[in-house]
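Contributing new records

If you add data, match the layout below exactly. Sequence lines come first and carry their own label; structure lines follow with theirs. Keep one chain per record. Anything else will be rejected by the validation script.
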Amino acid sequence: MRSHLFTIIMCTPLMLCAISKSVLPETKPVEKKAVESAPAPVLPPAPTLSTLVNIYTAPGIAKIDGGSWVGSEHLYNLGEVGVVVEIIAPAGITLPVSEDLLKEKMVTLFKEANVPIRASLFGEQTPLPFLHLLVMVNPIDKGYVAYCALRLFEAVQLSRVQLPPEITWQVISWEKQELTIFATSQLKEQLTTVVQALTKAFADKWKAQSKKE
């Protein structure tokens, strides 16, 4: 009886093993296949300042367009402007034109073009905006070289610094420049002609952009 029980106990694991092999099928591990995703479309790199073909270097408004830094003049909604004239020349040089004479010619042309001109730059408000005519004259052999620039100064706000209310950033928002060489006898005539051309350029742009649509 004891040996018979021992036999049953010893055979039971073998029987279970035989049963499991005859009933349960062999299984193989499932191979996981990697899911292949579609390749991302290759987009051309966005233009940056280091890849731009052309750079707009004048005051005004600008943006990146077609691989270039493009811009344009912007005189929309410009109100009254003042006029300031400054002549710079070497010491000892007497010029046949004065700052007052050039300013008078500019103001006359602006009034004819209906450009609103401030009667005075000084008062309770800042002088901005104002047009600054800069004339630099230097004598050369049998003549003069002259650099003339008409620049519009306006007040702006820059995000990089907070200024007290009484301090204003003034920047050049529009500009035209001319560099000329002419004979000594033509100094007055040529300077007057250049100043008239610069004044007309501003007046024409102001008229074109002040029209109501």
